[in-house]
Amino acid sequence: MDVVTTRLRLAADYLKRESSAAVDELMVSAFHAVHTPAAGVGELDRRGEGTALPPTGGDPWPAHLSTKQEQRRLQFQEELQTLLNHERKGKSDGKALRRIAELTELFNGEQQAQVWWHRAALQGDPVAIMMLVDN
């Protein structure tokens, strides 16, 4: 393995760790969830103890959302609209496009977010580039 390949591999490993941390942070802020290496992602109850999240494939926004969770969801939707308005005016950099991709993925699914991941990568965002390389 030559020096360039080694450095690229190290950079990719770093970006993967950083993006995993960003995804964990998004999960914590969006769903009040915690991630532990042993148990995976779980939700905190009122005592601060973890409980398992429901299996995937169900309604991502169940009817029993608390007011705080609903407010958080609305904040994310407002953030997405603000970012989209800035993007329409041509004021978005790679980081902003990546955030649009993250929020689009949260609300509309991975398939619709792919366009934004590609645009962020074209703007040079390292996390977006890493996400596209992994796919």
Question: What would you note in describing this structure?
Answer:
By secondary structure, this protein is mainly alpha-helical. Helix content is 65%, strand content 9%. The chain is built from five helices and three strands. It has a three-stranded antiparallel beta sheet with strand order 1-2-3. Strand 2 (40-44) and strand 3 form a beta hairpin. Helix 2 (67-88) packs across helix 3 (94-108) and helix 4 (110-122) crosses helix 5 (126-134). The radius of gyration is 17 Å and the shape is globular. The model is unreliable at 37-41 and 43-52 (pLDDT under 50).
Short overview:
The protein has five helices and three strands. The chain has helices at about 5-30, 65-90, 95-110, 110-120, 125-135; strands spanning about 35, 40-45, 50. The longest helix has 29 residues, at about 5-30.
Q: Give a short account of the largest sheet.
A: 3 strands, antiparallel
**Backbone structural class:** mainly alpha
What is the CA–CA distance across the termini? 24 Å
Coarse shape: globular
Write down how many β-strands occur, each being a DSSP E stretch of 2 or more residues.
3
Mean pLDDT comes to 75
Low-confidence spans: pLDDT under 50, at least 5 residues? 37-41, 43-52
Please tag this protein with its features:
65% helix; three-stranded antiparallel β-sheet; 135 residues; mainly alpha
Secondary-structure blueprint:
Blueprint: H1 3-31, E1 33-36, E2 40-44, E3 50-52, H2 67-88, H3 94-108, H4 110-122, H5 126-134
Antiparallel strand pairs: 1-2, 2-3
